[in-house]
Structure formats: structure tokens, C-alpha cells
Amino acid sequence: MASSDDQAVRATIVAAADRLYYARGIQNVGMDAVRAEAGSSLKRIYGLFPSKDLLVAAVLDHRTAMWWSGVDRAAAGAQTPREQLLSVFDFLNSWFRQDDFRGCAFINSFGELGATSPRVSEKVRAQKESFHSYVRDLVRRAGLADGVALQVTLLVEGAQTVAAITRDRDVVPQARRAAVVLLDAAAAEAGDSRAGQGAVPADGR
Amino acid sequence: MASSDDQAVRATIVAAADRLYYARGIQNVGMDAVRAEAGSSLKRIYGLFPSKDLLVAAVLDHRTAMWWSGVDRAAAGAQTPREQLLSVFDFLNSWFRQDDFRGCAFINSFGELGATSPRVSEKVRAQKESFHSYVRDLVRRAGLADGVALQVTLLVEGAQTVAAITRDRDVVPQARRAAVVLLDAAAAEAGDSRAGQGAVPADGR
DNA sequence: GACGGTGGAGAACGGGCGTTCTCCATGCGG
DNA sequence: CCGCATGGAGAACGCCCGTTCTCCACCGTC
């Protein structure tokens, strides 16, 4: 069958839905608007995505791919784990500058549907945990304690939230500067001696 | 007019709507559900709030009051601006522990309605900017550069986002530790004579 | 040219929701 | 006891939306 055609149409529909959902919010975009934006027909859409929920899931997968593509592109020139970690902020910087920037699609979707759609909720959690895991891996390769990975992750997520809401231009530079300070502090602690464990209750990971 | 009665009923309705909106998302809660939860009538509700949009605005105002009340309570025992800054994380900690915690209502509302409701968008922005301003004031009183205020704000917002999505227990402790590092670094930079003191208030929590 | 099937346009259906309206019970001043 | 304002219950209205269905134009095959 025309499976390759199907793949192309699928991609067109997902891209169209993504544009609309991101700009207006998922619940504010009807299937008819998606149809119009994709230049397709409802029958075709429902043939490829049996329900709106599944289309939303496909859009989130698409967003995941876009995210990693941006992260990878920014990390391409980095030589060390530390540089790779900091390159995330270069990615954020170019992303936030786009005039259609409206925050993190995952965070927005979670706010909108997290309480009612387990599918959405699960996709969002998977994406966030996978990014945290990516950061943790780089932190380990840099020879630092895991804790700083969560710290950097908080900066990245906070930057997305604050940039979306306030459009403050200093967000990414400050986030990056904070990350540098935190990485340096963790490096100093690691270089010090193994005595330097945080005073956290139950840090038995 | 029974204006004091009106005030009490207003508060009841707002509290009921807040509970439902926070738990399920604004768009997933109809006026009829609010009526049932508030034990009131639609006529009464529409007499006090001419439209759902205005009820939502009142709910956001209510959330703002709750936020500052929590922040103030946590800051009550703090002696210095630095302690006040760190007490924010104590507030977050007790908040995130509540089993009905579902993230920051402002961030959720923004994700849901930010693109379509200027009123919501504006309230959210005002709340976030007012918190940033609160942090900046404390940072200044601690004799530190403004930049670190944004850094701490990013940690606070990131903590709310990540805690909502992943329910990771380490979020607040790590956010607090990161804040300490950032404040210390800013103090060292400021060349303040008292900078190095009180680096990590051991079990001070 | 007839024909079956493919896919598009868009109407139709069922349900939900914001908002308004109708009807009625209640209580109070004459 | 009557009239009337008050406010509750919930039906009604209009609209939107997810999903399905109907109709029809088009295309390759006999």
C-alpha cells in the first residue's frame, strides 16, 4: 500500500497540529482547524489518528524529536561534557528568541491536560525524566556528583517557564551563569576530598 | 444590601472554584461543577461574577494571596535577608508535600489559557514579576548584585515545574543547596566582608 | 462507456458548556 | 391574608467540538 504516502501525510498533519496546539493550546484547537491547517480531510486524519488523544500523543513525540535535535545541534561543537552541558543554554537562547516562542510545549500540555489525560501526563514525564537523565550522564562524565544534575535541570526548566511568562531577556544568560557557578562548585567539591557530601537527609542513591 | 454576606459567599465560591480548577484544570470544570462544589446557585454565582473569565481572575487573585501568605509564614522566623530568601524553599517543601499538589496554578493556567485569555496571561505575569521583585529586594538588602535574584527565581520556578511533573523528592533540597551556592558566589563577588560567613547553615533548617 | 472503489467536502449527531430564563418556595410588610 | 421581592433549582438556548456518515467527483480497468 501507499505506506510512504501515509508517512508523509502523517508528518504533515502532525506538523500542522503542532503549530496550532503550540500557538493556541490543545483544547482551543478543534479537529476542523487541524484539517484546514494540514490541507487534508477529516476522514484522512481519523484514518491515521483514531482519536484526538492519539494525535496529541504524536505531536508530543514530534516535540520530543525537535527538542533532542536542537540539543544535539547545540552540543555538536562541544569538546567536553562540561561544554555539552552549557551548550544547552545556547539552544535555549536561540529557541527563546523565536517570535512564536510560547514556552515549553510539554509544560503547557501538562498544565492543560495533565490532570485528565494519563497519556499526555506520561509523555510529559518521560520527556522531562529523559532530559534529566541526559544531564546526569554528562555530569557523571564530568566527574561530578549527581546532585548538580538536578540543579542544572531546575535552571533549564525554570528558564523555560520564566521566559515564556515574562519574556525577560536576561533569563538565559543568568541561567547559564548560574550553571557555571554550580558546576564549578561541584568540581571544587569533587576535587576537594570525598568528605564533601551534601548534608542531605537520606542521600543514599 | 447584604454586602458582608456577599463577601462571604464570594469567598466560598472562589475557594470552591479554586479547588476544582487546581485539581482538574480550568477548562475541564464547568460552571455547574463550581455551583455544586460551592453549594450555591448559578444565579448567585453570575450575580457576583458576571462571567467565567472574571471568576477565573478572582481565583488567581486568591492564589496570589495564598502564595504570599505561605511565603510570609515561612519567612517569619528569618533574621536576615539571606535567611528570608532561603525560607522560600521551606515554603516550597511543605507545599510540595501536600498530596493534592499539582504544580503552580499560575503556570498551569498560563499553559492552558495564556494564549487566548489576556486577562489570565496578565495576572500570571504580574504574579511572577512580583515574586521576582520580592527576591530582588531581598538580594539587594543582602548587598548582592541583582543578577543572583533572577538566578534564585529560576530555581524556584524550576522546582515548581519539575516537582509537579516528576514528583522527585530531591527537588527542593537540591534547589535550596543550589541557591546557597549561588548566594555565596554572589557574596564573594561583592567582596562583602561578611561574605564567607554562614555558608551552609548546617542543620539550620 | 460502465463500474467499483478511493478519498474529499462537509453535513449530521451526540454531548458538553457558558449563559440566561422560567418557575416556584419562602419570608416579610401591609 | 395578600402581594411581592428574593433567591434556589434546573430547564432552555446557542454554540463549539469530537466523531461518524452521506454524498459525490475522480480514476483505472473491462
UniProtKB/TrEMBL annotation, chains A, B:
Domain of life: Bacteria
Name of this chain's protein: TetR/AcrR family transcriptional regulator
Keywords: DNA-binding, Transcription, Transcription regulation
Species this chain originates from: Isoptericola chiayiensis
DNA-binding region residue numbers: 30-49
Keyword Kinase among record annotations: no
Record carries keyword Nucleotide-binding: no
Family annotation (Pfam families): TetR_N
Residue intervals of the HTH tetR-type domain: 7-67
Origin organism lineage: Bacteria, Bacillati, Actinomycetota, Actinomycetes, Micrococcales
